[in-house]
Amino acid sequence: MIALDQEKNLFTLHTQNTTYQMKADQFRVLTHTYYGPRIKGGDLSYLVRYADRACAPNPSEAGLDRTYSLNTIPQEFSTCGVGDFRLPSIELELPCGSCSADLRYTGFELRRSKYALEGLPAFRGTEEEAETLVLFLEDNAARVRVELYYGVFERYDLITRAVRVVNQGEEPVRLRQCASLCLDFLRSDLDLITFNGCHLMERLPDRAPLRSGVQGVGSVRGTSSHQHNPFVVLCDHSANEDYGLCYGAALLYSGNFQALAEASQYDNARLVMGINPYQFCWTLEPGQSFTAPEAALVCSPSGFGPMSRQFHRAIRAHLIQDPYEGRRRPVLINNWEATYFDFDADKLVDFARTAAPLGVELLVMDDGWFGKRDDDNSGLGDWTVNEKKLPGGLEALVPRIQELGMSFGIWIEPEMVSEDSQLYREHPDWALRIPARVPARGRNQLVLDFSRPEVRQRVYGQIKAVLSSADISYVKWDMNRSLSDVWSAALPPERQGEVFHRYVLGVYEMLDQLRHDFPHILIEGCAGGGGRFDAGMLYYTPQIWCSDNTDAIDRLRIQYGTSFCYPTSAVGAHVSAVPNEANHRVTPLETRGTAAMSGTFGYEMDPNKTTPEEKEAIKAQIAFFKEHYDLIQRGDYYRLTDPFAEGPYTAWEHVSPDRREALVSVVTGPVRAAAPFMTLRLKGLDPELTYQVNGEGAYPGDILMEAGWPLPELLGDYQSLQLCLSAV
């Protein structure tokens, strides 16, 4: 709900459990007054304090009042170059050469339903589900208008932010920075949680108290990256899963980003999040506009758990566009770890012939089916079927797979090109490269300039022909290197600062076209595993390969960190063969299945190399997953333990929306002699209901949550168990 007081220029956004307020003050500066647990209303600008702070400049409108300074008041969208020395939200390079921005409130607009962003991902909401507030700010000297967009999803405690900058003048203006989110706090006694890592170990939580100065994360790799995720949390020092005030902020963007928190000298804090200004400079000609990506906020007065569940619900309901909406996505098997490049049509059919009776529903043919592609060194860019491997093409292969009762999917990597390819020989200038420099390779491949429409059209035309040639129901869209040598032959020197962002917009455009032309196809995102696991990609790809690391024990930590923002249904997770490819660890098949069920679930192994006992176990795993699909994919997620605490086990729980069903998953660590007995306290149950556990007994919900459930003694390293609870 959006409440207005036009006389006071006061704007209050209410959700089910939170309130967000801002006010244009006497100088038309848009101040931030409150964001926190829901309050009835009122003007909270009394919380903003004023004092004469030495060396803090005062705007001319303040006259002789030295207590008013942009450097000390909380702002809704921070300025630069005119007296605020904290983190800026925007930086304008004006025709005179100055870099500054001085924004003053001029008006507002209310809209029923949620705003949309052209060419960018955004949460969706009808007039029954969401409201929009637009606030207009202007820099009269620069003749630039800034539009601040707020989307309010009351049910989910979700507030979205977006920014549009319009050049209203008669000369070009260069935009050197434009954040999507600025959030000021009248306190700095907060912890900052970021989600960091590397290839094979992504999104590991890192928590530290704010200290004086600037802390944060970002990416300059052209992707959101394995190293840092565009999601952060600010919280009370004492906050945990079930207690304490916390703020989650997610950026719906898949390229260079930054999320910075600054603790000022007066114990205030500011969070700024948006496109990374590294090598960013966007020229706005007269009348042109620039739209910054959307950011999403959830405030929880009751810890991380409720915050995560609100993000999960909102992402599933209002961001992800799933061709299987209301239906179960298929359990798949991917041939990559089983065959790598060494396969042909007969091997794939034999692969499927063994997998189908186990309950597998989708065969995904990974890298190596196209062009001259027998290793990493050639073929990318030539998206035509290699008929030496697949005689008769997909038109011949797919019906053979379907006759076995399975559907068919393919792997693609459209953004990349091999130097040993027909495409590169014809158009070497289509790869990103700096003049007079030899470009760096990654996985022995170069990056196509997706900022150029002719490049996207050529690549998409090839892929569309392949997808139209047979009944294909799934596409895995991969991207196996970071961007370097970023320079486009299609842009003049003064606009090279636009290439990184234009590249991301190009990726989004092509994905949007793919979804439009093939609405039945399930697209899974991938970028060397989890290198582009962000809310922006989830708008186009309902699930994303979580990590190239499929080791069950490492996945406990990777999936734990991922769960702070992203729902189980978005997490690509498979059972792999052992010893695991990533670390050579050996874990039981049951444990690998338990870990993978906290995701989309599938297999990354050769079924022809499994024993009869393993085949029966796989059959049982798939049947179990299908039985509990709705609970796992659409239920509420609870983190019961912290896998980084080095405890004896890791546990998590899925609970149905009506709280009548729950699935508890437990994985132990290395075996310990004479281990103490363990009791696991559950969460999310109805204290008034009584539950059976694995079909036995009758246990009140309040007892299971307060007293807990005794865990059996599990002998051997990395064992697992699952508890099925149902109300009686």
Q: Can you describe what's shown?
A:
It is a single chain. The protein is of the alpha+beta class. It folds into 3 domains: 2-318, Beta-galactosidase, Chain A, domain 5 (Distorted Sandwich), CATH 2.70.98; 332-635, TIM Barrel; 638-727, Immunoglobulin-like (Sandwich). Helices cover 18% and strands 31% of the residues. It contains 13 helices and 39 strands. The chain has a 9-stranded antiparallel sheet with strand order 7-8-9-10-20-16-15-12-13. Strands 29-28-27-26-23-22-21-31-30 form a 9-stranded parallel sheet. Strands 5, 6, 11, 14, 17, 18 and 19 form a 7-stranded antiparallel sheet that branches. Helix 6 (453-468) runs parallel beside helix 7 (499-517) and helix 9 (552-562) runs parallel beside helix 10. The longest helix has 19 residues, at 499-517. The model has no long low-confidence stretch (mean pLDDT 97).
